[in-house]
Write a structure and sequence with these properties.
Layout (H helix, E strand, L loop, with lengths): L1 E3 L2 H12 L6 H10 L6 H23 L1 H4 L8 H18 L7 H21 L3 H29 L2 H28 L4 H7 L3 H19 L2 H21 L2 H33 L14 H31 L3 E3 L2 H21 L5 H29 L4 H38 L15 H4 L7 H6 L1
Antiparallel strand pairs: 1-2
Helix pairs in contact: 1-2, 2-11, 3-7, 3-8, 3-10, 5-7, 5-16, 6-7, 6-9, 6-10, 7-8, 7-16, 8-13, 8-15, 12-14, 12-15, 12-16, 13-15, 14-15, 15-16
Length: 458
């Protein structure tokens, strides 16, 4: 399950991808030594905070998906589409245009996320909320590509470990903050979103304060030597293999890791945005707003806790022993896909008697997805030290987000079918949909102790 591969073996396998007949052990051995750069706890903390502040706004809007649509019959998948479609398009474009400076990208990312959050809060109609969510999608897409590229290419592996653990913590904080304010307390969703607007300034300030320190952390002479070795390897490869063929080869060798990212995040988000939105339990939870809308928020929170555990386990293990990685990822990917099928059947036939069983399944789902996320990005980032690493990390991010987008698109139909089936057999909408039916809920929240069932009874 866990295997140890030395840096030299990894680089040698990467070299064989483009040098089918000729190897350059001296080049790779020298590169192995010159890439050993000094990384301090300060660097780890910087990327940890960047990961937290990057993931928290995204998960906050996933958790707020049902509240954004409160009082409407629109499918939950529309929120997921608005939250991912602009990001996918922007990431695809970034494959061709990388000349924008890193500083400008970070500033633009923070500005877009903050502007989107303010639009969602202060524009009263539904169209304004969707416009704001789309702006958040653009900002998180830019920020994700910028930070992941820097962590995977420019700095040591501990930086990538810290970033991945930070995204797991950000997911938990984003979900827990929103659930705590809107379900466990009496804060309305608009105010909860406004509270989460603290994350873009944290992202920007952290980068601005640490930018000079990150430059100090690099050894200038080592960086120059590494650049010369990269240039030499590149010139040799160009004589042997066309540039496009070399890049296709590098993508092919990592494609199974990218495909797993697509599949597991498709399964996770179709469960959250289409399947579990139609599964409500009577008399479960605490607080006036737990039933029915509170179910959805707790499903998301349970999943994010699992994601944090999965991402932290693999990343921390690799930080201690960088040669270790998970060799049975396809086996691990079986669990999210199997859970998707089971939960479709469980929702259709009402097979699960207690809500805690669904929380446990969400936790397992998140743990498996988090482990695959961490393992896949580590493998892709470490396998290619040439200029291909930027392309491959970006492509992996595209497929991950495309999996979530596909889940939103397909979820529009799946949620409709499951809801209609439930209404036909149960007859009470509040038992078939994890959404508040009161149109004023977005503005006033649960301060009047209204839930969906109460509104229907009235």
């Amino acid at each position: 399950m866990m295997s140890e591969v030395t840096t030299e073996e990894e680089f040698s396998s990467s070299a064989s991808d483009t040098d089918s007949e000729t190897s350059y052990p001296q080049v790779w051995t020298h590169e192995r030594h010159v890439t050993q750069r000094e990384t301090t706890p300060k660097c780890s903390m910087v990327f940890f905070i960047l990961g937290v502040s990057l993931a928290a706004p995204f998960i906050t809007f996933v958790c707020a998906g049902e509240d954004v649509l409160s009082g409407t019959n629109k499918p939950t998948g529309l929120v997921i589409i608005a939250l991912t479609a602009p990001s996918v398009v922007l990431k695809i474009v970034s494959l061709c245009f990388r000349q924008v400076s890193h500083v400008a990208r970070i500033f633009i990312a923070s500005a877009f996320v903050l502007a989107g959050q303010l639009c969602v809060v202060f524009i009263p109609h539904l169209g304004g909320r969707f416009a704001g969510i789309s702006l958040v999608s653009v900002g998180t897409g830019i920020g994700e590509i910028s930070v992941f590229m820097q962590a995977s290419k420019e700095l040591e592996e501990v930086a990538l470990c810290s970033l991945i653990v930070g995204t797991g913590v950000g997911g938990v904080l984003g979900a827990a903050l929103y659930v705590g304010l809107t379900v466990w307390a009496t804060v309305d969703p608009r105010t909860a979103i406004l509270v989460s607007a603290i994350w873009p300034p944290v992202f920007l300030i952290t980068f601005a304060v640490s930018r000079g320190n990150l430059h100090i952390l690099r050894n200038v002479q080592t960086a120059e030597s590494f650049s010369r070795m990269q240039q030499r390897k590149f010139e040799i490869d160009c004589h042997l293999t066309p540039r496009w063929k070399e890049r296709l080869t590098s993508v092919w060798n990592s494609f199974h890791n990218m495909l797993m990212l697509f599949l597991v995040y498709f399964s996770e988000y179709i469960i959250l945005s289409a399947i579990l939105t139609t599964l409500v339990f009577d008399g479960a939870g605490v607080g006036p707003e737990f039933a029915p809308r509170g179910h959805f928020e707790h499903y998301v929170l349970s999943t994010m806790v699992g994601e944090f555990l999965g991402r932290s386990f693999i990343s921390m293990l690799r930080a201690v022993a960088p040669g270790f990685f998970f060799t049975s990822s396809p086996v691990l990917a079986f669990f999210p896909l199997a859970e998707t099928i089971f939960l479709v059947l469980a929702t259709w036939f009402r097979l699960v008697p207690e809500v805690w069983i669904i929380w446990l399944l969400c936790f397992i789902q998140g743990t498996a997805c988090g482990m695959i996320f961490s393992n896949s990005y580590h493998i892709i980032a470490r396998r290619f030290i040439s200029s291909h690493v930027i392309f491959n990390v970006t492509l992996a991010s595209i497929l991950e987000t495309a999996g979530i987008l596909t889940a939103g698109l397909l979820g529009i139909h799946v949620e409709s079918v499951l809801k209609e089936h439930c209404l036909h057999h149960v007859g009470n909408k509040s038992d078939c949909f994890t959404r508040n039916t009161d149109t004023s809920f977005w503005e006033y929240g649960n301060r009047f102790n209204y839930d969906g069932k109460t509104a229907l009874d009235l």
